[in-house]
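Supplementary Methods, section 5.1.

A reviewer requested that the exact input to the structure prediction be made available. We therefore reproduce it here, unchanged from the version used in the analyses.
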Amino acid sequence: MVLLFSCESDDINRNPFIPDVSFRFDLNLNLPLYNDLNIIGSPIYVDNAGVGVRGAFVMRTGPSDQFVAWEANCPNQAPNNCSTMVLEGQNASCPCDDYEYNLFFGQLLNPPQDGSRFFNLKPYRAVLAGNSVIISN
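The structure derived from this sequence is encoded token-by-token as follows.
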């Protein structure tokens, strides 16, 4: 009886716009391309083929091994010609709908006022291993 009531589906919270893709990509912190990841709050955009749907934003959020990675496709848009977000300091914005997202927490900063449903940024794993940050899904 307990099993019947303790199981729930997270389908209602699942983003229908961004497909799940499997990937793993290493960012070597010794390379100049990823130098900004040595500074807290200085995000980079990784647009290598096979990384997420439209690439990923990666940022160090604290000392030592604290990193976040987010899908770069607008979370409230299906992948299309305007759905790749752009970096704006420690935020990312979507040119399709003018939504802006905080890269520390992945939250939408300017939610719709009409009560319509919206999604925050899609997170990826970001783990420090030696001198590399490994991002994956």
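The radius of gyration is 16 Å. These observations are discussed further in the main text.
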